[in-house]
Amino acid sequence: MPRWAIYTIFAAGVLLILLCCLCICIKCCCKGKKKKRQQKTGENINLKGVNGKTTTALVQPDVADVDYGSTKKQRGRLLYSLEYNAALSELIVGVKQADSLMAMDLGGSSDPYVKVYICPDKPKTCETKVFRHTLNPVFNEQFNFQISKSSLLKSTAVMKVFDFNRFSKHNIIGELRVQLCNVDWNHVIEEWQDLAEPAKFEEEELGEICFSLRYVPTAGKLTVVILEAKNLKSMDIGGSSDPYVKVQLALDKRKWKKRKTSIKKKTLNPYYNESFTFDVSFEQIQRVNLVVSVWDHDAMTRNDAMGKIFLGCDATGNQLRHWADMLSNPRRPVAQWHSLLSAQQVNSTLSLKKKIPLHSKLPF
Ligand SMILES: *[C@@H]1O[C@H](CO)[C@@H](O)[C@H](O)[C@H]1NC(C)=O
Ligand SMILES: *[C@@H]1O[C@H](CO)[C@@H](O)[C@H](O)[C@H]1NC(C)=O
Ligand SMILES: [Ca+2]
Ligand SMILES: [Ca+2]
């Protein structure tokens, strides 16, 4: 082989390797830039203030238009609808979809769901389903509220978008507050609105509770392990409480079985790890509600309820989700955190009748 041919082949080889290196370098650089851009978004979100409550036209948003580099904070926006049926005194709030929601989880996504309620009377709080790993969920759910025309005009519809997390507190992404006196009730309202930073004032934080549920269908055993609670309200002078947890089962909305944890003295973040097992047949589990409530023990006066939550066949939202996870994972404990609600709120959704008469408790 002539010398020049060897040189040519060698030169071609070197050129090829160089080209490959160049390609890899370019790819790496691009990834780096993308990461930096995402980090920048995060900084903006943390530093910059509130987004205006501007109402925008009803158009499909172009995700590519979202300018992450700009200083504008992006919590995302929500398409909702409002309708009032005067004959039935019924307000219908539709939660249609959201887009460009702020990413709350590592990996740049969120697990959004929306809570809806009416202020200042807050008879009930409704929740949409959770959508996993998306910033553009399509909810298409609607919620009805009984409300008279006169109180309607003094009320505010609140829609809060949260990021669901199984093992930690759910983060709020943003919220909408629509003053209902400003709404033209002659038409069905349907509009996109930018999510605002959540208001700090009105929400009474009652704390959170973590418990695990396990159901063994063959044995007919339901096991509830009360793990811990945190950020509970202080009920006693001195800014503390003596919390214990009541675990109650209702069958066909009748009080059925009840157990209690021990009392943890002077703490707002009690750790229990106490397990309760109930006999619940497979036929009964479909008709059961589990009520978990936190109480402050007082030696001298009546014990006070600090917060409540219920799961089971009549539950909705995150509570139903936990219950369904338990049923679809038989024999496996499933743990989840829940935000506590007021006793009034739970009572208005789940009004329990008196205890089941004794004879129907006995198997024979
Ligand atoms: C919780 O209780 C179980 C059963 O009593 C025990 O095996 C487990 O180690 C406890 N966990 C902690 C963290 O204390
Ligand atoms: C909730 O209902 C229970 C009985 O189901 C009752 O004992 C309790 O007082 C009620 N609490 C409130 C705040 O209405
Ligand atoms: Ca999440
Ligand atoms: Ca006390």
UniProtKB/TrEMBL annotation:
<dbReference type="GO" id="GO:0030672">
    <property type="term" value="C:synaptic vesicle membrane"/>
</dbReference>
<dbReference type="GO" id="GO:0000149">
    <property type="term" value="F:SNARE binding"/>
</dbReference>
<dbReference type="GO" id="GO:0048791">
    <property type="term" value="P:calcium ion-regulated exocytosis of neurotransmitter"/>
</dbReference>
<keyword id="KW-0479">Metal-binding</keyword>
<keyword id="KW-0968">Cytoplasmic vesicle</keyword>
<keyword id="KW-0770">Synapse</keyword>
<dbReference type="GO" id="GO:0001786">
    <property type="term" value="F:phosphatidylserine binding"/>
</dbReference>
<keyword id="KW-0812">Transmembrane</keyword>
<comment type="similarity">
    <text>Belongs to the synaptotagmin family.</text>
</comment>
<feature type="domain" description="C2">
    <location>
        <begin position="74"/>
        <end position="193"/>
    </location>
</feature>
<feature type="domain" description="C2">
    <location>
        <begin position="205"/>
        <end position="338"/>
    </location>
</feature>
<dbReference type="GO" id="GO:0042584">
    <property type="term" value="C:chromaffin granule membrane"/>
</dbReference>
<dbReference type="GO" id="GO:0031045">
    <property type="term" value="C:dense core granule"/>
</dbReference>
<dbReference type="Pfam" id="PF00168">
    <property type="entry name" value="C2"/>
</dbReference>
<keyword id="KW-0677">Repeat</keyword>
<dbReference type="GO" id="GO:0005544">
    <property type="term" value="F:calcium-dependent phospholipid binding"/>
</dbReference>
<dbReference type="InterPro" id="IPR001565">
    <property type="entry name" value="Synaptotagmin"/>
</dbReference>
<keyword id="KW-1133">Transmembrane helix</keyword>
<dbReference type="GO" id="GO:0005509">
    <property type="term" value="F:calcium ion binding"/>
</dbReference>
<dbReference type="InterPro" id="IPR000008">
    <property type="entry name" value="C2_dom"/>
</dbReference>
<dbReference type="InterPro" id="IPR035892">
    <property type="entry name" value="C2_domain_sf"/>
</dbReference>
<dbReference type="GO" id="GO:0048488">
    <property type="term" value="P:synaptic vesicle endocytosis"/>
</dbReference>
<dbReference type="GO" id="GO:0030276">
    <property type="term" value="F:clathrin binding"/>
</dbReference>
<feature type="transmembrane region" description="Helical">
    <location>
        <begin position="6"/>
        <end position="30"/>
    </location>
</feature>
<dbReference type="GO" id="GO:0005886">
    <property type="term" value="C:plasma membrane"/>
</dbReference>
<keyword id="KW-0106">Calcium</keyword>
<dbReference type="GO" id="GO:0030424">
    <property type="term" value="C:axon"/>
</dbReference>
<keyword id="KW-0472">Membrane</keyword>
<protein>
    <submittedName>
        <fullName>Synaptotagmin 8</fullName>
    </submittedName>
</protein>
